[in-house]
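wait is this the right file?? whatever heres the structure
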């Protein structure tokens, strides 16, 4: 089964990563974007807690001009199915705390 798609396409529907046989898609963000995403997600979690969505990541992408469909696929493909998982699995801090944000 192939999950081929063009990450540059603007997709209206929900797209998720669902193939354990394929390598995880790359998170094509430069170090500054990664840091800004982590800060935005952290702030969103501190403000609203985790609602088991990628709300803070999506809001950051919209403000940063980053294509959401491609970012969503990359986050989910690397284990970030909600904002707290983005911090735990995709953008972990250098020295993680024993208790995660969830």
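ok assuming it is, sequence goes like this
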């Amino acid at each position: 089964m192939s999950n081929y798609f063009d990450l540059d396409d603007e997709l209206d529907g929900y797209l998720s990563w669902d193939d354990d046989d394929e390598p995880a898609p790359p998170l094509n963000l430069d170090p500054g974007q990664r840091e800004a995403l982590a800060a935005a997600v952290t702030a969103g979690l501190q403000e609203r807690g985790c609602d088991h969505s990628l709300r803070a990541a999506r809001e950051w992408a919209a403000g940063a001009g980053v294509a959401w469909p491609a970012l969503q696929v990359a986050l989910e493909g690397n284990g970030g199915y909600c904002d707290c998982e983005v911090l735990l699995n995709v953008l972990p801090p250098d020295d993680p705390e024993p208790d995660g944000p969830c």
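The CA atoms of residues 22 and 49 lie 32 Å apart. so i think its the right one actually
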